[in-house]
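Chapter summary example: a protein plus adenosine monophosphate.
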Amino acid sequence: MTQPPRSSSAPPLIVRSIADLRAAVARIRAAGGTIGFVPTMGALHDGHLALVRAAQAEASHALVSIFVNPAQFAPHEDLDRYPRTEAADVARLAEAGCALVYAPAVAEMYPPGAVTRVRVPGVSAPLEGQFRPHFFEGVATVVTKLLIQAGADVAVFGEKDWQQLQVIRRLAADLDIPTRIIGAPTERDTDGLALSSRNAYLSPEARARAVALPQALLALKADLESGAVVGPSVARALAALAAAGFGPVDYVAVCEPHTLEALPDDAPLAGPARLLAAAWLDGTRLIDNLGVAP
Ligand code: AMP
């Protein structure tokens, strides 16, 4: 069947209700198109745009949602100061050839009386789950709703949030959500820092020191690839982060890549692993991760 042309640099259609989203998706499908979905919280950077390109490689039309999800922020976290830049985001999405933007209000996503929550035990318990106990229930709930609302063919999530990607793969499988879940590699700045909307909180001086986070993970990866024992290698990474002025360091962990169970401290790696870190720098929490195979 002939596919409708990929959208050009025409501005995307912006929809704000579930009904309008479903109608727009139905029009694309009726013309023979397919939908590649990229959920975001806005404040778009080149990492998000790489996900849009990945979605466009898999489907005829890219759909991007912009929704700062209150359910995944604890009361003391940065919900109020999280950057909201919708006009600039839509301009970048127009340039990227994105067909459709879904930007619902909080009351559309969580109308009065809504109480159902999605929990994904196991994979969401350690790491981010330990330090941000509200986080994955909020993410799992909103991503489940977004996947059901959009009915996309594929949805693309960043490996930047590695544990989140594992949680989403688990919930999509467990809840028989027919959208195919794709992971896309982390986009980094020229010095190696993973792109993140939260990097905007860093002063120029802190931004310069932030590169110690990916460097500590790269050094940990090199140690483990050369056969070093896990525990002392992690201790070296923690010391490097402290020396660069990070504090507190929530975790530096060496985990089984999909279950995120911690691997033994007292031995070298016996198989593939994921290295994950979360640490604070001047009041901003940064996360990063890398794959390693011995
Ligand atoms: P956020 O807007 O931060 O919630 O992120 C929306 C999506 O973009 C998630 O799937 C993230 O994992 C992904 N993402 C964020 N930063 C990056 C990055 N530097 N590289 C690739 N994907 C990213």
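Key point: The radius of gyration is 20 Å.
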